[in-house]
Amino acid sequence: MIMANITTMSGFLLMGFSDTRELQILHALLFLVMYLLTLAGNLIIITITTLDQRLQSPMYYFLKQLSLLDLSFISVTVPQSIDNSLMDDGYISHGQCVLQVFFFTSLAWAEVAILTVMSYDRYAAICFPLHYEVIMDPSKCKWAVIAVWLSGSITGTLYTASAFSITFCRAKIIHQFFCDVPQLLKLSCSNDYLGVIGVAVFMSVMAIICFTSIVLSYIHIFSTVLRISSAEGRSKAFSTCLPHLFVVSFFLSTGIFEFLKPTSDSPTAFDLMISTFYTVMPPALNPIIYSLRNEALKGAFRKLLWGGEFTRKKTFLSWC
């Protein structure tokens, strides 16, 4: 009778991490702490890269967009998961699930796209420093960001339209803490999920192209950096590139692993941990990774913290 009600209900049942009440509360508290820290870290980066005119170069302009994406990305899944755990109710309506799939896939792809743009920016800055302002002029930066958000929206639309065109004829139980597309496919009893597979294959090819572009950019970057005679110059170049490379590797490796591994009717703690790694950890770690070895960001943060005045020095990208 219960399974019949689950099958015929309009929404879905998110199983989350545990059925034990104490563990549900612990999960909610941990996610709440992570969420608040992520909000604070990314809002600080958005604030200081907006107010401090010394941080108006393309690198910080794209970093601000990444922080905005991170804020949005973590807000798609974590608040809903916290609410479900506190209320001891994993139910999510059909409309909420549709919106979650749309925004999750849109923002995930937009993150891949902005990380690709950021790698090209570092490539241009280090390999062609004399032509950098021409290569990364304000109009190109603006159109690059528009392309990032637009490509994310198109991806989200394709994924959502194909995912919810299938007929759900099994118990609407999702063994995840958010509406995960691979889990939704398991609820289909026919071949009408092939459209989703087609979209996934197409986007996988695009992701491989982006990843290849990032790898090639860093091959050129590191070969150029190693030829720099100044130890200080090499250190400065590595300090801006290595954090970005870590973010790209972490986000893509955990996400690819999650989507390539077979879905399970009874996922293990390891499966849920991997999904946490690519949904929660990157937005939380990005502010730390990008600011830890960046003296300009740390200086701007100290000014924000102590109520100092930000510089009004103009740069060629000050309009951003």
From TrEMBL:
G-protein coupled receptors family 1 profile domain segment(s): 41-290
Compartments, as annotated in UniProt: Cell membrane
SUPFAM superfamilies assigned to the protein according to its UniProt record, in alphabetical order: Family A G protein-coupled receptor-like
Cross-referenced CDD domains: 7tmA_OR14-like
Residues annotated as transmembrane: 25-48, 98-120, 141-161, 193-219, 240-260, 272-292
InterPro entries: GPCR_Rhodpsn (IPR000276), GPCR_Rhodpsn_7TM (IPR017452), Olfact_rcpt (IPR000725), Olfactory_GPCR (IPR050516)
Membrane topology: Multi-pass membrane protein
Cellular compartments per GO CC: plasma membrane
Single annotated GO MF: G protein-coupled receptor activity
Domain of life of the organism encoding this protein: Eukaryota
Main location: membrane
PROSITE patterns noted in UniProt: G_PROTEIN_RECEP_F1_1, G_PROTEIN_RECEP_F1_2
Keyword Ribonucleoprotein: no
PANTHER family to which the protein is assigned, alphabetical: OLFACTORY RECEPTOR
Family statement: Belongs to the G-protein coupled receptor 1 family.
Purpose: Odorant receptor.
Protein name stated in the entry: Olfactory receptor
Source organism of this protein record: Trichechus manatus latirostris
